[in-house]
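Notes from the 1:1 (GR / supervisor)

We went over the backlog. Supervisor wanted to see one worked example end to end before approving the batch request, so GR pasted a single chain during the call. The sequence is below; no edits were made to it. Supervisor asked that the structure be written out right there so they could see what the output format looks like.
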Amino acid sequence: MDDLEQAVLSLRISHPDSTAKQIHELLVADRPDISLGQVKKASSKLAKRGAYNAQPPDQKPPAQAAASCGASPPDALPKPHNVRRPKGLPDLYPGPPPWLVDSETVLGDMAAKVGTPPVMMKMALGAYLHQRQSDERWRHLTHLYRGQEKTCLSVEEHGTKFTQAGYDFSKVLRVRPRPPPCAWYEAHDLLHATTSGLRMLKSGYVPPSPPLPRFCDYCKRQCTAECRCGEAYCDKDCQAMDWQNHREICETVADNAELAMSLTKQSWGAKGVLR
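Structure output shown during the call:
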């Protein structure tokens, strides 16, 4: 889920009767570069994923080409089987890209081979790495609020959770007069408003260990596999069922992060895991 989808989701939850145009008007005050068409597209993707029906939003898992699904949550869809594979369906990998475990070494070696400064490699991967970091922290945040989706907490209590999930909540804590107790999505709105959607992530973030569970973007069951773009699916059947909805964003990520896609394919291929 990208930053725009997160912002649209928060506003949809806090303003459930608002139209896409009204949501756009709320967003454009802080982000004038956002178009109405982008808001409509983000809203459509969220609706297709069922994000409005179950809060906190779906979490994404590392996928295994033949990974088994976990227990069925209340909002789980029937598990598909023997689904026809559409043309162009990407590889499904057992988990996060192996090269991310030691990206500094991998990029350094690659830079040396092609005679390019390592910093150039990092720049080429900047947006991709930032999005993965953002997704990881969003999953952590929604996990911390699980069971408290509608509970009104003080700004200080929200600050503890947001900071734990790797967000810089310091500007919200400096707001005067002090905002009244609110739900988590309203706290997210406050964070977005005080930062204009920029520099929301805090340095020094330590992700949970072991990693938090992730859930299939199609059937909502816990799983461990992921598509090339990072979206979570139980297996190729769920990936194929969701391809019509997922294809545009997946191909956009792949086009904008060709180096990352190549590294991921190579690192999993070296382990003999390609389907």
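Supervisor's comment: The chain has two domains: 1-53, 58-99+133-269.
Batch request approved.
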